[in-house]
Amino acid sequence: MWIFCAGSKRSGSTLQYNIVSRILEIKNEGKRLPHSKPEEFLNVVEDNKDYNKYKVFKTHLLTSEIEDFIKTSKPNIIKIVYCFRDVRDVNVSLVKKGWLDRNLNDLRNTTISYLDDFERWMAFKDVMYISKYEDFYDNIKTEIIKITDYLDIVLTETEIAQLERELSADALKNDKNQLVNKDRFSFNQKTLLHKDHIQGKIPNQFKTFFNEEEINVIEKESCNWLQKYGYYLTSKDLEKFSSYSQHADDYIAWQLLGKKDKGVVVEVGAFDGQHLSNSKSLDDLGWKSINIEPSPEIFKYLEVNRPNSTNLNLAVVGEDSVKEIDFYSEELGVLSGCLVDEDDLKIRYNNRGITYKTPAKIKVQAKTLNKILQEQNCTEVDVMSIDVEGFEMKVLQGLDLKSNLIKLLIIEANNEDIKNEILNHFKSFIDYLYVGNNYQNLFFIHKKTVKKKHIKSIDFNDYIKVRQQHPKGDKFVID
Length: 479
Description:
The protein is of the alpha/beta class. The protein folds into two domains: 2-207, P-loop containing nucleotide triphosphate hydrolases (Rossmann fold, 3-Layer(aba) Sandwich), CATH 3.40.50.300; 243-465, 3-Layer(aba) Sandwich (Rossmann fold). It has helices at 13-27, 41-47, 64-72, 87-97, 104-121, 133-136, 140-151, 157-166, 169-176, 206-209, 212-228, 249-256, 280-285, 296-305, 342-351, 369-375, 392-397, 416-426, 452-456, and strands spanning 2-5, 30-32, 54-58, 78-84, 128-132, 241-243, 264-268, 288-292, 310-312, 315-316, 324-329, 360-367, 380-386, 405-412, 432-438, 441-446, 463-465.
């Protein structure tokens, strides 16, 4: 059994290698292998053929030998732990290490090479654990827990705390300082740490390290990649709309309203504020956003991901008399709601290879949209997104579209019955025009807002689809 710690250069891969290795060592489930060149991998396989537990091999490169080995091995004996980082900061780190000359041609070529290596590894993304450096560099405990889950190994709280201490930046720096020969090529044979390995964990170092011309050279080669993975460009000329929605609903809404720089967006069923979000991109553009999420567990992630938004831990109901409601919380999170269809849930879990557990029933506070908008002093909304897993009609019953001006509504309808109910509901509101549907989402626009030129000019391609991330890990992602 093999675990490849295959993160990109200067992206936290050595930290991941030590996390994986220590997890296995603590539980006696495997061993770390000493440094070997990727080109020598088949020799390493031969040398360890009689060892039947996990073997941890660190490599940045996906050589043809390693690629063929992964492709021809049984899926249950291969694990790949991977991390990546803002390629602009990778260039900074390489220059500081003395591994890269600071000239435009080398910066360009290094960026291209980094992205090429990344794309080669992504051929195995369905079986990989993938982590973003900026998400784990200062939260090692969470990274430890996610990796143990991926490896299907259980650590006690004491063991997790022990690992967190061992692998803190200060502890690793002390380990690195024990090197006898401290030139830039020497490294600790166990941890694989080398001189000046840990340079500081601050993101966006490139902004103060490189000049404008150097940054532009890197961004020109990587602009689409940077936006896809949630990084922002300094050059607005290269920037495209970054969509977090499942099917670019945010991009469509933005175009229907004339590509406004400012506005108000309300998302009912906001989840963690990132995964499948219809409001985050608009928030990033400078819009005011109100996010409503009933799950207490998921709401914690929402507050972290969207600190500048108004975030409300509430269920939305149809009557002001309802102050509290039963909420069914399932593991995927995005399928949780005030209604539950266990047969449908079982099918969806099975499709993702996840063990189904009966949703937990909890009580959550509830308000109507009328009450929420009144309390937020917000009777005019540019975009309202409603995705509440079959509870959409109840939500609409608590929204007065005559006293509240909602310029554009995006409403999920997961089946024909719900779709017909919603369409019939809007027949009572002559000021609203049904624009059409985008997959399961229905679009309604206020007639005072609609402009034919905006509808006719809608583009469905010129945007960047941001990589979806689920707070509980990639196996839960819906894309």
